[in-house]
Design a protein that fits this description.
The complex is a heterodimer. By secondary structure, chain A is of the alpha/beta class. Helices cover about 20% and strands about 20% of the residues of chain A. By secondary structure, chain B is mostly helical. In chain B, α4 crosses α7. Classes of the chains: A alpha/beta, B mainly alpha. Chains A and B meet through α3, β5, α9 and β19 of A and α6, α7, α8 and α9 of B.
Chain lengths: ~575, ~250
């Protein structure tokens, strides 16, 4: 029997990147806010303390900071003809668990999506016509433009203290930055990180080919920085244990370093950890959420009434809670109707690995997001008319941490084991580096999320089911842009290189990226989006669903910068409009 | 265990920057070779013999130094199988089970513990039938033949698909060769010395822009730090002892 608790003004479901910011701001605005987090409390000290912080097996292979699948996972199939089976171990993506969420172990690349990304459909049709549009593609405009989001990108970058170099300041192209980015109102709050050898070689080669290299924007901070919440983030020491790890230096921007010091002092905020929300309860006409139900670590069920409910957990859990609670109409791919679960997308990563006989790179001296990038082949920054695909991705000579259990490249054709393999690993561990390509992924009618008919979590509730494969557009794009990256690689002059476009059937097994997107897409049309441009549910207006779940398709970037901007977009609408007059904002 | 070939070679080819090895570095360098044989928790003697033989083929000892056997990978696997990993503590185990497609990943109802137990017995039984000996008694070339057949899916197993077992074994072998010695493998930091990985990181702020300049340090493990064998900075990062390589 559930214990009914005293009503509060707002509940935040998931205390990670988006939830911490919203909770802090709303508590400060005078609302009584409860944060419900299914995992445990985690902080720099003692959770990420030396020397155990530098343990590759524990963090990369045994997933110390990541989701415990024994309690809840997803099921997966490539298409509706197959039977979905549970993801029994982590592979393709690595969601987080606990306070801070995946933003504890994230890699730190902090991008603004291109203006084009927010208007993918209308701009593609305008420039290339209907015939260029991929078959079955449901990618769409976001219902918001880059210009509207610019102040929110700016606020997030200053909150997290991002290190980078502007390429377009108020419309003026700045040398050394990204000339393709949307116009920004200010320079980054901190200068770029240092340049590693791999980045220097890439920079030189890319310039010679007429491209526009610039330092990647990173949440590993180039110097100590105090943000608007009074939190001080330290300077990075390039230890190379960044992505998949917590930062012992407090030098990676995260909820722990940027927001929680302030949030935990807010008198009107209460954090409840090990509190797993299983349902949002609606009133009888399903137009209003009245409370959330959660189960604590002793198995007790509680009902927490609230005026405002913010779903701020990872993509999967945001969508699953909507489906379990009856918020919005579930997507039906056969009828191409319904919205919740629609437009699930991912990423199309590929790479070129360069091998040298005579150069050493010390790639273990690294930081999350350390690298040199070109954006010449992202979005619609290049002419697609003769190419037969849309989208692209950024190329980066990445120095993000080489640790030998996971990162030990060998030239293609080397056996997987035995003496020859050992010789190659010994030779090339320190004589290689990758150019990584963060390819975009469009949305399709056949890629979606719904509830699994068979498999259940530890509470007996249906798992989320993912039906997903990349399509011809992604394979063509990946092949073409990876070959472009190979031209740059060739100009650098390696003795050998592995050119690895992404063309195979999607597999959930090897790690690719924790950039799952969509399922609760935002948009201007309630028949094709689950939330409006303020991240507010069309059907239940006192529920906001904030995160990469709102992306209608994924761009050729890491998603976090755009997730941060959407958080402030939702916040501004809630603070300036919704609280004054609760109800639909669009 | 005696000083490994790899370490001898390592010591021969490098000398510590400066006049003498500091006491702390010398202690750190003494290695963690156990005085007595390891006490296995999960593996039977026959399974230990199988794994010693198999991992020695996957990562062999050669002129570069010791391989997976010398690194203590069998003991590492034993410890992993006995712990949470071996029983799928953080993995989803509910049925119903089906083999699924390759894209759907690990679907066996067996835990890693159970996979090793069942598959090693099957491989040994098949070797006995074909060669009249268990796997560990075969010549190296025959062992390679068996491993290759498992890798290529041509060696019939009942309990799990052959490549599933092979991939698990290879994955755990690489883990044991390159993980921190605190887990019982990578003994004497054989794996890290092979590739030139310094282990627990120092502050690299002053080195990251020294392009193309080798950074050769005595690798530091978590064990070294917990045992107080390494000087630390104020954040707990080790102060690496840098080496210079003698031109040969």
């Amino acid at each position: 029997m559930a214990t009914k608790l005293k009503p509060v003004d707002a509940v935040v479901v998931g205390v990670g990147l988006t939830g911490t910011i919203l909770a802090k701001e709303l508590a400060e605005a005078g609302l009584q806010v409860v944060g419900l987090e299914r995992g445990r409390w985690r902080d720099t000290d003692p959770d990420f303390a030396m020397p155990h912080a530098h343990d590759e097996l524990r963090y990369v292979k045994r997933h110390e900071l990541m989701q415990d699948l024994s309690r809840e996972t997803i099921s997966f199939r490539n298409n509706t003809k197959e039977t979905a089976l549970p993801m029994r171990q982590l592979g393709s993506f690595r969601p987080g668990e606990g306070v801070g969420g995946a933003a504890v172990h994230w890699g730190g690349l902090t991008w603004r999506f291109l203006p084009w990304d927010f208007e993918t459909r209308s701009r593609t049709l305008a420039r290339y016509g209907k015939d260029h549009w991929p078959t079955d593609c449901t990618s769409q405009d976001w219902g918001i433009t880059y210009e509207e989001l610019e102040p929110h990108f700016d606020r997030f970058e200053y909150l997290y203290g991002i290190s980078g170099k502007a390429g377009n300041l108020k419309g003026k192209i700045i040398a050394g930055g990204n000339p393709f980015e949307g116009s920004r109102s200010r320079e980054y709050p901190n200068p770029p990180l240092k340049t590693a050898y791999a980045g220097a070689l890439f920079d030189d080669a890319a310039k010679k080919l007429g491209y526009h290299p610039f330092p990647s924007p990173s949440a590993a901070l180039s110097r100590p920085y105090t943000n608007e919440y009074g939190a001080t983030i330290n300077g990075c020491v390039y230890c190379g244990y960044c992505q998949f790890f917590g930062c012992e230096m407090g030098a990676k921007a995260s909820p722990q370093t940027a927001v929680l010091p302030n949030l935990m002092k807010q008198k009107k905020f209460e954090l409840r950890t090990l509190a797993n929300v299983v349902k949002v309860n609606l009133d009888s006409d399903k137009k209003r959420a009245v409370s959330v139900s959660y189960i604590d670590s002793r198995g007790r069920e509680f009902e927490q009434p609230a005026e405002l409910i913010l779903l701020t957990s990872y993509v999967f859990n945001n969508v699953r809670l909507m489906l379990l609670s009856g918020i919005g109409k579930p997507y039906d791919p056969a009828a191409n109707a319904g919205v919740v679960g629609r437009n699930y997308a991912y990423q199309t990563p590929s790479s070129v690995t360069l091998f040298f006989e005579d150069k050493v790179f010390n790639q273990f001296m690294a930081a999350g997001g350390l690298g040199m990038t070109i954006d010449d082949f992202n979005g619609d920054n290049f002419d697609h008319s003769a190419l037969g695909f849309i989208g692209g991705g950024f190329f980066q000579a990445a120095t993000s941490g080489s640790r030998p259990i996971e990162v030990r490249p060998v030239p293609r054709g080397t056996p997987r084991w035995g003496g020859e393999w050992k010789q190659a690993v010994a030779k090339y561990f320190n004589r290689s580096f990758p150019i990584t390509i963060q390819g975009a992924c469009q949305s399709y009618r056949t890629n979606y999320l719904d509830l699994d008919p068979t498999y259940r979590d530890s509470y007996g509730l249906p798992l989320l089911r993912m039906t997903f494969d990349r399509r011809e557009n992604e394979h063509k794009m990946s092949t073409w842009i990876t070959n472009k990256a190979a031209e740059i690689a060739k100009a650098i002059g390696p003795s050998k290189m592995n050119v690895t476009p992404r063309t195979e059937k999607y597999t959930i097994v090897p790690y690719q990226s924790t950039h799952n997107t969509g399922g609760a897409a935002m948009g201007a049309d309630a028949s094709t989006s689950a939330v409006n441009k303020y991240l507010q549910s069309w059907d239940v207006p006192n529920v906001f669903v904030v995160g990469a779940s709102a992306f209608p398709q994924n761009g050729g970037y890491n998603p976090t910068g755009t997730v941060g901007a959407l958080t402030f977009q939702a916040l501004q609408a809630i603070k300036t409009r919704y609280l004054k007059r609760p109800g639909p904002l669009a | 265990m005696d000083e490994s070939e790899g370490r001898r070679r390592f010591l021969k080819s490098v000398s510590v920057l400066g006049a003498a090895i500091p006491a702390a570095a010398a202690a750190q360098h003494a290695g963690h070779a156990p005085a007595k044989p390891e006490k296995f928790m999960f593996l039977s003697p026959a399974e230990v013999a199988f794994l010693d033989a198999a991992v020695a083929r996957l990562i062999p000892a050669d002129e570069l130094g010791g391989g997976a056997k010398e690194a203590g990978v069998t003991y590492f696997i034993d410890q992993q199988l006995f712990g949470g990993y071996g029983v799928m503590a953080k993995m989803y185990r509910q049925g119903p089970h089906a083999e699924g497609t390759p894209q759907q990943g690990y679907q066996s109802p067996l835990t890693p513990q159970e996979v090793y137990r069942a598959a090693i017995a099957e491989v040994n039984a098949a070797c006995a039938k074909q060669y009249g000996k268990s796997f560990d008694k075969l010549a190296s070339a025959q062992q390679d033949e068996v491993l290759r057949a498992l890798d290529e899916g041509k060696f019939a197993l009942e309990a799990v698909p052959p490549r599933f077992f092979f991939n698990l074994l290879l994955d755990n072998t690489v883990e044991g060769f390159f993980s921190d010695p605190i887990y019982g493998g990578n003994r004497d930091k054989i794996g890290w010395k092979l590739v030139g990985f310094p282990g627990v990181a120092a502050v690299y702020t002053q080195h990251v822009e020294k392009h193309g300049v080798p950074y050769e340090a005595l690798p530091v493990s978590i064990v070294d730090i917990l045992e107080g064998k390494t000087a630390l900075d104020e954040h707990g990062h080790p102060k690496h002892v840098l080496l210079v390589r003698k031109e040969s």
